[in-house]
Amino acid sequence: MFRSKRSALIRRLWKCRAGYSDNTEDGEAETEADLELKSIAQSIFKRLKDKQLELLVQAVESKGGANSSCVLFPKGELQIGRRTVFPQVVLCQLFRWPDLRHSFELKSLTFCCEHCKLQDDGDSTICCNPYHLSRLCGPESPPPPYSQLPMESYNLEERNSTPESTETGASNTAFPHNFSDLNDSLGASKPMHWCNVAYWELRSRVGRLYPVYEQSVNIFQELPHGDGLCLGLLHRDCRNESVERTRGKIGYGVTVSREPDGVWAYNRSNFAVFVNSPTLDIPNSRTLTVWKVSPGFSIRIFDYDKSDQLRRTRDQEFMDGPYDPNSVRISFVKGWGPCYSRQFVTSCPCWIEIIFNVPR
Q: In 25, 129, 269, 350, which residue has its Cα 20 to 30 A from 219's Cα atom?
């Protein structure tokens, strides 16, 4: 009976593998490398305890949409035949990224670390849940910058204008950084938020600033895709077709987390997101760089030390408009830059601005 249950779980896992199609029989058009990967993965499945196998099935069937537990495996390399492999790499190749090659391309997500801390044997095991891992997209092995563009020339008077509607919090211009709409709601005894998130549709801000107190926050479209900022709950009377289409693709959105080496963004959605951050730019450059972050990738979007250096050393001669070294922009699905019709982030259908609460 137990063998039958394990066999059923393993069959469910094979149906979740990357590139699987119900119309394609197993073994059809498979390369030698594919067959070898299947053989290694089968060996890993057999080594997993029943509970861990069930947890793995839950994780891969939800494709990262549901909160999943760690899938623990003995730490270290695994010798299978003549091959030495890392089990977490194999499972990521099988279920997420067939082109993955090395373990140093992977980064553990913050909620994975929190789960592992609860394990008594945390020092001797490693989490192999492929949805507790992301691929690095950063200075270590970056893709080419998506685009470069001149500094956006926001008008200072517009930047400090009040919202157009007190009901939706929407405005036609960039929002002020004094966060006056939060002061009344925050008591002196409450912990200080480390950042605020604003959601934008084109040039209109929708909803109030969202203060973040926890170490990480999910920003997603519809419930129950996580806890955090649900964009689907932010109502607006009139939306054009482009905004509606883009909102339908946000899905699981992004996770923004504060970690010891800075702030990271993880793309949980099925579409690329695009990031602009002053700490990803070349110092004293007249251009801003926009990074394309593919689904499943993470990028360090903010470096506190570098931001402090920029604030103290940035040459005023190179500043073509208002500049905030503590602000990051993330656009969902659509990029911007000279190679596309959208020259500025304010032309993107759906985007967020993250303003970090850094002592000045």
A: 129
| 152 has a pLDDT exceeding 90 | no
Strand partners, 106: 135
Q: Are 353 and 177 in contact (CB under 8 A)?
A: no
Helix (H, G, I), strand (E, B) or coil at 209: strand
Residue 301, token pair as written in the block: 């979007």
Residue 296 banded pLDDT, cuts 50, 70, 90: very high
Sign of CA dihedral 335, 338, 344, 349: negative
Question: Residue 52: which residues within 8 A CB-CB, separation 6 or more?
Answer: 71, 72, 73
Which residue has tokens 């058009």?
29
Q: Is the peptide bond before 278 cis (omega within 30 degrees of 0)?
A: no
Q: Which helix (H) or strand (E) holds 112?
A: helix 110-117
**No. of helices (H) and no. of strands (E), the chain:** 9, 18
Type of residue numbered 34: D
